[in-house]
Design a protein that fits this description.
The protein is an alpha+beta fold. The protein has 3 domains: 211 residues, no CATH class; 149 residues, Sandwich (Jelly Rolls), CATH 2.60.120.230; 88 residues, no CATH class. Helices cover 17% and strands 32% of the residues. The protein contains 9 helices and 25 strands. Strands 1, 2, 3, 5, 9, 10, 12 and 13 form an 8-stranded mixed sheet that branches. Strands 7-4-11-6-8 form a 5-stranded antiparallel sheet, with no helix packed on it. Strand 1 and strand 2 form a beta hairpin.
């Protein structure tokens, strides 16, 4: 396997986004072993129990979250026991046994949780037995360790999230007040019978005692005759993030608005080095002369449970505009940090609910290109001083590019640094070139089979299929 072929495999682990667990499934009973379940108002249930880490049942955490089940939808319940000073991230897939026109969600989880999310996937009617990297996997309908959902399964955007239970306003009975209704009463995200959904829960225990944690999510539906528009969730993910030891950095990406949409909410996602965030709506691509900021979409310093911004009236975005978002970081540790799946790594995302749904828009993807883990329609900006020519030298000098992973990894930091250390002016050509390289590698590898010429694949790409992108990037300066 060539270095670029390996690069493609590693990138696929990002496409879309050490513990033990067990679980069971049931339909129609409305109950589940240990009380862990996804319950529908009509009695359908799918159980989940990720408490089996050899310590406790995990049920105490769910008992502490007082959230009555909705009368018009489903309640998801995911208990998780976490040993002292450990973090755990689990996924579980389940098949929707009935349709739901999802109008709004209300999620809560135990303090210390990093996130709780519900994702769509590309799978239909049955649980997959092969991961996106081609590995056999049996039992995905039970809670199982996952570095991040997109590292194992073909996820297609989040449709529900949790927040800290302790920060919810309580009613007179001690129950949390319902979350804010983001979508109008005639807009819904369609969950169809046979759709395979994925629940993902990530909990960090920084204490010296085991914690019984829980993620609960209420999904509220509306009738078929009430639905006028299908909604989606914006999930724009900048995978090019590095923060030097005891240093500062900024990650920036701009994504196109591919069609006219209405946005009902916006929020951010960073990890603990994040101390500043801003997302702006531009009238055109930031690479075009005269681009101006039309309005601020989101801003704030919070990385831990950032608040969702809900405008009084939905925001109208027009095709041709761009969402330009930036994450700022301060690293107070003497170690290099890069984008990755663990809480000790970093992330930079722009999120929100909108309608009508357009998958290319919400994932910052170019539908003419294959999904490969990069934001194929995005403009990724570096924060350094490298020219385009210096980026190319950096990229092709890597012994083995590493784009995905978790925890400290200097190979991943050095790979992503080729991008993040490029100057903003030269950055516009990064994505077009690397995407061309990924798409042309198979043909060039076949062409160079048996060749004794050093750098045959590189020359085939740079002087053939990707010649225009290569020359544009080679000529890009920082002046």
């Amino acid at each position: 396997m060539t270095r670029i072929a390996r690069l493609m495999v590693m990138l696929s682990a990002i496409a879309s986004t050490a513990c033990e667990g067990d679980g069971r499934s049931s339909n129609g009973s409305g109950s589940a072993p240990d009380g862990a379940s996804v319950e529908a108002s009509e009695g359908n249930a799918i159980s989940a129990d990720a408490g089996g880490v050899g310590i406790r049942s995990g049920r105490e955490g769910c008992d502490a979250l007082k959230m009555p089940s909705p009368t018009d939808g489903w309640q998801l319940e995911f208990p998780l026991s976490v040993p002292p000073t450990q973090e755990r991230e689990y996924c579980m897939l389940f098949v929707a046994e009935q349709e739901l026109n999802l109008n709004w969600t209300d999620g809560r989880y135990t303090a210390g949780s990093h996130h709780g999310l519900l994702f769509r996937t590309s799978y239909k009617h049955s649980i997959p037995t092969t991961t996106i990297t081609g590995e056999s996997f049996v039992g995905a309908d039970s809670p199982h360790p996952c570095p991040t959902p997109g590292a194992m399964w073909d996820v297609r955007g989040a449709i529900g999230r949790g927040r800290y239970y302790e920060r919810a306003q309580l009613d007179e009975n001690g129950n949390p007040e319902p979350g804010v209704k983001i979508l109008p009463g005639n807009v819904a995200m369609k969950i169809r019978k046979g759709d395979v959904l994925l629940v993902n829960y990530h909990m960090i225990n920084s204490t010296e005692e085991p914690i019984d944690a829980c993620f609960k999510l209420n999904l509220h539906g509306i009738r078929d005759d009430e639905v006028r528009h299908e909604a989606g969730m914006i999930f724009m993910y900048n995978t090019m993030v590095t923060v030097p030891p005891l240093g500062r950095s900024t990650a920036r990406m701009a994504c196109p608005v591919t069609k006219d949409v209405m946005v009902g909410s916006t929020f951010s996602h960073m990890h603990s080095r994040g101390d500043g965030y801003v997302a702006n709506l531009l009238d055109r691509a930031p690479t075009e002369p005269g681009a101006v900021v039309l309005r601020e979409l989101y801003a704030g310093p919070e990385w831990d449970d950032p608040p969702m911004r809900v405008p009084e009236e939905p925001l109208q975005l027009r095709a041709g505009q761009y969402i330009d978002f930036q994450c700022r970081y301060t690293n107070r540790e003497a170690r290099a940090v890069s984008q990755g799946f663990a809480s000790t790594d970093e992330m930079c995302m722009f999120l929100g609910f909108y309608w009508p749904q357009d998958l290319a828009f919400e994932n910052c993807e170019n539908p003419a290109r294959e999904r490969n883990g990069m934001a194929t329609a995005g403009i990724v900006y570096g924060d350094g001083k490298r020219t385009g020519s210096e980026f190319l030298d950096c990229f092709w000098d890597l012994p083995e590019p590493v784009f995905a992973g978790a925890f400290d990894d200097m190979a991943r930091f050095e790979t992503l640094s080729c991008f993040t250390s490029t100057c903003p002016k030269a950055s516009a050509g990064l994505n077009p070139y690397v995407l061309c390289v990924l798409e042309g590698t198979a043909a060039c590898t076949e062409r160079c089979t048996g060749s004794s010429q050093p750098g045959c694949v590189q020359e085939c790409l740079n002087q053939g299929r990707c010649q225009n992108e290569y020359q544009t990037l080679r000529a890009a300066t920082c002046d």
